[in-house]
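Chapter summary example.
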Amino acid sequence: MSTVPIIELKDVSKNFRSIQALDHVDFDLREGEVHALVGENGAGKSTMMRILAGIYTDYEGAYYLDGKQMRFNSPHEALAHGIGMIHQELSVIPELSLAENLFLGRQPTTRFGTIDWRRMYRDAEEELRRLGFELDARLPLEQYPLGTQQVVEVLRTIVSGARVLIMDEPTSALSPSEVGQLLALVDTLRQQQRSIIYISHFLEEVLHVADRITVLRNGRSVATLTRDEATLDRLIALMLGREVDRQAQPITTESEHEETILEVKDLTSDKFRDINFRVGKGEILGIYGAIGAGHFDVARALFGLYKLDRGTIILDGEPFPSNHSARYAIRRGLAYAIESRRKSLLLDQPIYQNITMPHLERIGRFVPQQSQELAAAAPTIAQVNVIPPDPHNPVGKLSGGNQQKVAIARWLTFPPRVFIMSEPTRGMDVGAKTEVLGLLRRFGEQGFGVIVVSSEPETILAVANRVIVMARGEIVGRMENKNLDKDALMRLI
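The structure predicted for these 493 residues follows.
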């Protein structure tokens, strides 16, 4: 591995209004190196990668490529200079063949201008063979497992001309065997003198794959370590800004609660397996994990939005039917606020319609009148303190915190037995977070069961009575929230 940098960032800063996302950061990448970037959510990793990939063009500081100062105006321009970004969400087209995905937009053509299918299939299989994969390039990509689709995504970026690959959480949705396959690919690329910036929440994975590791905290680069210098405890300490507590150990038994409302037994799907837990009356259960741990998929499955292979969901002593619907879950007393407010709310519609939307058939026998919807929504608007409280106000004009209040209020019209809240405070300022967390605590005090699903340890620790930690689709720890700290959770993922 060369010690001469291909890429250098010097004194780079980036802010979004009042938020300082990057604060005078230095970073460099060498030829044939895997340089990992780690940090908590909000540490600045994504911002830094978007600058490198030409997505963000407005920043302070200097960006050097091969010693020459650059400022890319688009991802296309960055790729033209050999820098490609592989995003966490795959951009493949499953219905097309492997070869078509690999050469999408760059298909070889005959002298008549038509696609040269024979050459495309041959070239695709040769490119795969160079990386150690014997695959039929004619098959639709959807017939291959997710790990192979990720390989095709990587190879497509290389075929596009990239010699620097920015890999953002590349293993978050992969099974353990597929993770091994991808890490082997990364090692092959390193041997071919490709340079890789590798972002991951999975610290053990980072320790295995990286030559160097840079830690970001609160928008600043706090350390760059070689693989020999780095340990799990040291990385966590640098991420948190203090030494880790070695005494905090997970308990492995499910604590009993005075009255169980919800019981989950052996839930298994293609994203998680053997999930077991209980939620008691007045209890807040936190489910924590890094991106891709499977905890958000468990939440969707409870609400009937994700297909199960097996398992039992029991609410108030009565089991749900196999692969129930969301409508059934609502009827039985489950409420679910998803992690994306923009996907769950109709931003151009008034507050009252967003609140009454799941309950129209209960509010009116046929099509409810506006007066009926307003009467149903008004008490819940007041209960969660939406500001401003005008029920006719479009939701899109509200702040993020008040949008989340609307997402919560919609389930209070006909109160459920159990609230499932995914990332309830994501993207909020401190004041809004405090209000929303206060609402969740109040639900517990009122005797509801509450499940808070998050990749932000602060959110989990702020409200949960008990915590389940998930990694790679499995429960890896169960803890009572008594003097817990973030390091106790982070050591498990």
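To summarize the output: The chain has a mean pLDDT of 87.
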